[in-house]
Amino acid sequence: MPVRWLSPETLKKGEFSTKSDVWAFGVLIWEIFMYCKNDPFPGLTNQEARAKIVSEKEPMTAPEGTPPMVANVMKMCFTQDSSKRPDFEILLRLLSPKETPPTKDD
Fold first, then answer.
1. Is CATH 1.25.40.10 the right assignment for the domain spanning 7-95?
2. Residues of 67-91 as b/e, b for ≥16 C-beta within 10 angstroms?
3. DSSP letters along 41-87, please?
4. Which of 25, 33, 48, 61 fits 66 for a cystine, CB–CB 3.0-4.6 Å?
5. In angstroms, rounded to a whole number, what is the distance separating the alpha carbons of residues 84 and 77?
6. Residue 8: what pLDDT?
7. 50 and 3 in contact (C-beta within 8 Å)?
8. pLDDT tens digit string along 30-87?
């Protein structure tokens, strides 16, 4: 399993949802601003990465040079409680405020 991209609720309870996808999006942001030089949680085993993810603390911080708004979005993606984690529409509005979110018919 791709432990390093999984959300706390997925690792603890096997739950997958769009909110767990938001968590993985936060990991993707980290990868992009690391220029894909490392896998997430470099230097850690999968067990150590899992422990960080379920620790109730922010599992990783934005790489140096990440624009502040993007770093803030990444941090929001790592909200431990999935019910408080933003959805993709909120993230789109933050990252691209002039963009109109797609409708369900799109």
1. no
2. eeeebebbebbbbbebeebbeeeeb
3. STT--HHHHHHHHTSSS----PPTT--HHHHHHHHHHT-SSTTTS--
4. 33
5. 10
6. 98
7. yes
8. 999 999 999 999 999 999 999 999 999 999 999 999 999 999 999 999 999 999 999 9
Locate tokens 């691209």: which residue?
A: 96
The C-alpha angle with vertex 17 and arms to 13 and 20, in degrees rounded to 5, equals 75
Instruction: Please report, for the chain, how many H helices and E strands are present, in that order.
Output: 5, 0
Token reading at 59: 């599992």
Apex CA 32: angle with CA 29 and CA 34, to 5°?
110
Residue for token pair 């990465």: 49
Longest dimension (CA), the chain: 44
